[in-house]
Amino acid sequence: MSAQAGLRGRTWFKALTDSDSAMTGDPGSVLTSDAALGNETARFLCVVPNPQARFPCARRGEVGLEEAYTLARLIREAIDQDAHGNKRPIIAIVDVKSQAYGRREETAAIFLAAAASADAYATARMKGHPVITLIAGQAISGGFLTHGYQANRILAFDDAGVVIHAMHKEAAARITLRSVSDLDRLGHEIVPMSYDIHDYAKLGLLHKLIHVENPDLPSPNSVAQVRQELIAAVVDARGGSNDLSSHFTSEGARQMRLAGLAARTRMEKQWATA
Amino acid sequence: MTEQTMTDQIVVERVSTETTNHTGAFPAFVNRESFIELNARARAQKLMDSGSWRELVDPFERIESPWLPEQGIAPQSDDGCVVLKGKIAGKPAVVIALDGGFQAGSMGEVSGAKMTAALDLAARDSEAGKKTAAVLLLETGGVRLQEANLGLAAIAEVISSMLFLRQHAPIITVIAGTVGCFGGMSLVAGLSSYIVMTREARLGLNGAEVIEQESGIEEFDSSDRSLIWAINGGEQRVAMGVADQLVVDDAEQIAATVRKFVEAGLPRVHRSQQVDLYRERIAALDTSRQIDPHSLREQWRDTKKTGGGR
Hints:
heterodimer, A: alpha/beta, seven-stranded mixed beta sheet, 7 strands, 46% helix, 16% strand, B: alpha/beta, 13 helices, disordered N terminus
C-alpha cells in the first residue's frame, strides 16, 4: 500500500494537540500529549514513521516492539495517575500500515509486545477510561490490533485513503493465491473482504464515519468538527458499557453477523444447561 | 532459581526417566499417546475430567461460515472451533480448541463468535463466584483471510473477553503443534495466564514466509527451517521466558500440566502486564545486527538485573 502511512496520523495529532513530538526517552515513533478535549484533558497517542528507529523494520510507520511497549507504558501511566480521579479519555489516532515484519521483532517476541499494548488499551477501557480511536489513514492487521482496536468507539474518516483490513492487498493476494483484481472483485461481493471503508462501515464495528473536506490538509473548521465528534464519542462511551458489546448490538452487526450472533445465542442457551 | 531453569531441570529429569522406565522391552515413548496426532475435539476431551464435559454448539448445530461457500470453499459444521464445558481437576472449566486441519485453524466470524461467547460466559460465571478457567488449544494461522475484517474483529473481541475473564480465573494456552500459533492469535497466547508448548509447536506474530515476503530474503530466509525453530519453537519460547512450560508430545503429560495450572489459579502478575520489564529488555538489545536466539535466553534469564520472571 501507500508508503505514506503515518503522515495523516501526524497531521491530525498535530492539529488536535498542538504538539508534534515524542516524550523525552520515548522512541520518536510514538507521539503522545495530554491536551484539552472539551472541558477536560485527554491523552492522545499516535504511531508515526521514524526513519531513525533502532529497529530497521519499524521505520515506516509499522508498529514494532518499541512502539507497542511505549503505548502500553503511556496508557498504564494514565490509568495509574487517574486511579482515584476523573478517568481521562484516551484517544488513539491510527494510521499504521501494519505490525513490523522483521526477524529481530520475531526473535524478541513481538507477539508479547503487541499483547501488552492491547492489554493496556483494554484495561483502560475496563477501568472506565473512554478509549476512542480515530482512523485517519490505514488500520491494518496486527498494527490495528496493537493500536486502536480495543477502543469503546471507533471513528474513521469517510475517505478513500482510509483502509481497515486484516492484511494489505498485495500480501493477501499472494497468500490466498488470488490476483489483486480478483480480490477487488471479491471485495465487492463479500463485504468483510472489502478494502472499501463504506463496506467496512456495514459490519457494525464503526461508531461513525466522519466526512471532512481534506483529511490530508485539515482546515480549522475540519479540526473543530473532528474535535466535536471526539467529544461526542467520549460522552457516548461513558454512557455505554466498558466492553466491546457494541460490536454485536449495532444495527450493522444485526444485518451482517447473523451466523456469529446465532452461534452466540446458541452458546448462551446451552451453557446454562450444561 | 528462575522459572526457566526449573523448567529445564524438569525436562532433563523427564528425559532421564524415559530412558530407564521401560515397560517390558519398549521405551516409554512407545506407550505414550501422542497429543499432536489427536484432532481438536479429541484433544479437548483429553484435557477434561472424564465424563464431566459436554460440547456446546456442536457440529450438529451446523452453524457454519456463510462466507466460505460464496468463495467456492467447503465450510465445516463446527467452523473449526470446538467448545467443551466441564471440569478440570474437579474445577469448572471450558476448553476451546481450534482445529488446525480446517483452514489452518483460522479465525472466522463463527469460530470467533463461539470463542468470544464461551469466554464471556466463563467470565460471567466467574464473576458470580463460580470461577471457571479457560483452556485454549491454539493451532492457528490467525485471521481467516476469506473473512478478513470479521476475523480481525473477532480477534479483537476475543482479546477483550479474555481480559474480563482473566481478572477472576486463569487462561491456559496450549500450543501442541503442528500448525503453531501465529498472526493475531499470537496476541491471544500472549495474554494468557500460562502458555504450554511442545518442541513441535511454534509461536510468533509473523511467520517466516510473511517476513520474507514483506522484508526480503536477507531479513528472513523462510527455507531455513532450523532458524525458524530456533526463533519460534517451543523450546526457545520457554527458555527465553515468554512461555511457561515445555512438554513432550504425550496426552497424559499435557493433561497433567493443564491440571497443574488450573489448580495454581491466577499468576501473581500476567506477563502482558510486565511492561517495564520488557521495555527495559528491548532497550538493552543490540539492534545493529540480528539477535542471536540463544544469547537472548541468557540475557532474559538474568532475572537479578531485569527484575525477575514473575
